């Protein structure tokens, strides 16, 4: 997702941030509805069915294939874009990264503390990572719908913050949700990942081994096989399988990585993320009074919209004071809508919820409802704040000068300088 193609439909409507956000919301609502109608039990049974390949001791449920398998592709895209930001993008120097990083830290620490306030002394404290995530696809979609009049610097700051937030989420998954590590499988995964990265160097424009486009296909097919092998061995190792997508995204050469993201992005936005959202939202709404809901439910529900709003705003202002300038070029009135957008947890929060409460289906279901409701509240708050701020910019700026004209969409592998 790049700064310049907010709604580029020239190649695929699924590159549009508005379409991506709409599909995510539709899939989640559909999942919640399906789980609570007459066909719900049959669908839930199907999602719990197992895919088994005895010859290689592979066993995974359909629902886990959505979260551990399909979502690895999404994390591959995140890692490619994150690496690019750290190398040549909006986070390629300490001065550029400092303010969004401080705001991102506030957006992680405060929601976690809010959650712990609700759950202290209970058996659900392990759910503290759930409200720390920001769904960049959803946040950018809301910004595209309600904030088209906002200056580009607002979007750049949001993307930088969300990218750093994704990095924190990756580290949390790697360090807090890894159990029973099988080091032999990790070794095989590392070999596959290394070979994948080495082969990608052959596809660079200036590679001395550069081949014709037709001759590149055997290399590409081999890389796909290595990527599947890396995912398989990571899954078998006990490390969460999405980390394989992260590792592959970090090792792939930049230009081939850009082309891969260009090719995969419509599939990720149009199929992978909606399928995961549908699967995660297949929750039977419990027939209990509000007072009987778990502290985890209330912790998530409050921490996402409120904790993120407070944490990002306060940390962003403090960062501006420390560096004696406004937060990344943002006035406080611009920072607050960005903070509200950060409260849209959704995709990664749903994944964190599944990982944190995998041993208690009842609490996990309440967590899903809390993520959906908390993100919905954040969407409403953000839509109002972004609309008000956009109206302000419409009043003070003529339409022609409000935003720079969009640059032509770059060819695959030649992404513009700001991506997420």
UniProtKB/TrEMBL annotation:
Membrane-spanning residues: 21-44, 56-78, 98-118, 130-150, 157-177, 183-203, 215-233, 239-257, 269-289, 295-323, 330-352, 367-388
Reactions catalysed: Na(+)(in) + 2 H(+)(out) = Na(+)(out) + 2 H(+)(in)
GO annotation (BP), single: regulation of pH
Annotated Gene Ontology cellular component terms: plasma membrane
Stretches with biased composition (Low complexity): 397-408
GO function terms (MF aspect): sodium:proton antiporter activity
Compartment(s) of residence: Cell inner membrane; Cell membrane
Membrane topology classification: Multi-pass membrane protein
Chain spans, region Disordered: 397-420
Keywords, in A-Z order: Antiport, Cell membrane, Ion transport, Membrane, Sodium, Sodium transport, Transmembrane, Transmembrane helix, Transport
Family to which the UniProt record says this protein belongs: Belongs to the NhaA Na(+)/H(+) (TC 2.A.33) antiporter family.
Matching HAMAP family: NhaA
Record function comment: Na(+)/H(+) antiporter that extrudes sodium in exchange for external protons.
Name of this protein: Na(+)/H(+) antiporter NhaA
Organism, scientific name: Orlajensenia leifsoniae
Upper lineage: Bacteria, Bacillati, Actinomycetota, Actinomycetes, Micrococcales
Gene, per the UniProt record: nhaA
């Amino acid at each position: 997702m790049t700064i310049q193609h907010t709604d580029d439909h020239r190649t695929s409507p699924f590159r549009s941030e508005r379409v991506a956000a709409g599909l995510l919301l539709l899939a989640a609502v559909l999942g919640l509805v399906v789980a609570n109608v007459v066909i719900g039990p049959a669908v839930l049974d199907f999602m719990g069915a197992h895919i088994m390949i005895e010859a290689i001791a592979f066993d995974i449920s359909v629902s886990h294939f959505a979260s551990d398998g399909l979502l690895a592709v999404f994390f591959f895209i995140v890692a490619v874009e994150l690496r690019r930001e750290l190398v040549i993008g909006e986070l390629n120097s300490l001065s550029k990264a400092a303010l969004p990083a401080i705001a991102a830290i506030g957006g992680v620490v405060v929601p976690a503390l809010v959650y712990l306030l609700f759950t202290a002394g209970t058996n659900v404290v392990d759910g503290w990572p759930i409200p720390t995530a920001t769904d960049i696809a959803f946040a950018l979609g809301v910004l595209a719908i309600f904030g088209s009049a906002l200056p580009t610097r607002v979007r750049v700051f949001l993307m930088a913050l969300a990218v750093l937030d994704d990095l924190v989420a990756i580290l949390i998954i790697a360090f807090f949700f890894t159990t029973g590590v099988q080091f032999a499988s990790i070794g095989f995964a590392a070999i596959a990942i290394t070979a994948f990265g080495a082969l990608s160097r052959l596809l660079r424009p200036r590679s001395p081994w550069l081949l014709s486009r037709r001759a590149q296909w055997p290399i590409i097919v081999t890389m796909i096989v290595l990527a599947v092998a890396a995912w398989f061995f990571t899954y078998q190792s006990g490390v969460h399988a999405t980390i394989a997508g992260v590792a592959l995204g970090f090792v792939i050469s930049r230009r081939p990585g850009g082309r891969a993201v260009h090719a995969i992005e419509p599939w990720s936005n149009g199929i992978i993320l909606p399928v995961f959202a549908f699967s995660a939202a297949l929750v039977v709404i419990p027939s209990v009074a509000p007072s009987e809901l778990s502290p985890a439910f209330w912790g998530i529900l409050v921490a996402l919209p409120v904790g993120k709003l407070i944490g990002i705003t306060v940390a962003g202002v403090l960062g501006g004071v420390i560096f004696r300038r406004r937060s990344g070029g943002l006035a406080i009135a611009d920072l607050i809508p960005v903070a509200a957008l950060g409260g849209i947890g959704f995709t990664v929060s749903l994944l964190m919820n599944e990982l944190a409460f995998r041993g208690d289906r009842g609490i996990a279901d309440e967590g899903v409802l809390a993520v959906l409701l908390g993100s919905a509240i954040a969407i409403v708050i953000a839509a109002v704040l972004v609309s008000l701020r956009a109206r302000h910019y419409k009043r003070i700026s003529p339409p022609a000068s409000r935003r720079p004209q969009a640059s032509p969409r770059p060819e695959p592998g030649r992404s513009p300088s700001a991506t997420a």
